[in-house]
C-alpha cells in the first residue's frame, strides 16, 4: 500500500512539474492542479497507513505495533 501511494505522489508531482514548465497557460493551470493533488495525498500519507487501528489514539495507550 505504501508503495502505491508513494508512486502516485511521484507520478502526480512529475506530471505537475512537467505541465508547469510548458509555455501554455492551460497547461500551467493543470500542472498546479496536479501538484495540489500530490501535496494533499502526501499530507494524507503522513498520517498512519495502518489498518485495524482506531482513528484516535487514547490517552495512556499506544496503538503502534
Helix and strand layout, with pairings?
Elements: H1 2-20, H2 25-45
Task: Name some characteristics of this structure.
0% strand, 65 residues, elongated, 62% helix, mainly alpha
Structure explained in plain terms:
By secondary structure, the chain is mostly helical. The chain is built from two helices and no strands. The chain has helices at about 1-20, 25-45. Helix 1 packs antiparallel against helix 2. The longest helix has 21 residues, at about 25-45. The chain is elongated and about 55 Å long. The model has no long low-confidence stretch (mean pLDDT about 85).
Please provide a brief summary of the model:
Helices cover 62% and strands 0% of the residues. It is mainly α and 65 residues long.
Shape: elongated
Main sheet record:
none
Total beta strands: 0
Query: Helix fraction?
Result: 55-70%
Contiguous helical run count: 2
Poorly predicted ranges: none
Structural class: mainly alpha
First-residue to last-residue Cα separation: 17 Å
Beta fraction: under 5%
Average pLDDT score: 85
Order of helices and strands: HH
Radius of gyration equals: 17 Å
Amino acid at each position: 500500500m505504501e508503495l502505491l501511494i508513494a508512486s502516485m505522489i511521484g507520478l502526480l508531482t512529475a506530471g505537475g512539474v512537467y505541465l508547469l514548465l510548458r509555455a501554455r497557460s492551460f497547461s500551467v493551470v493543470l500542472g498546479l492542479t496536479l501538484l495540489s493533488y500530490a501535496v494533499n495525498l502526501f499530507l494524507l500519507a503522513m498520517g498512519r497507513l495502518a489498518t485495524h487501528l482506531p482513528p484516535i489514539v487514547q490517552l495512556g495507550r499506544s496503538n503502534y505495533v
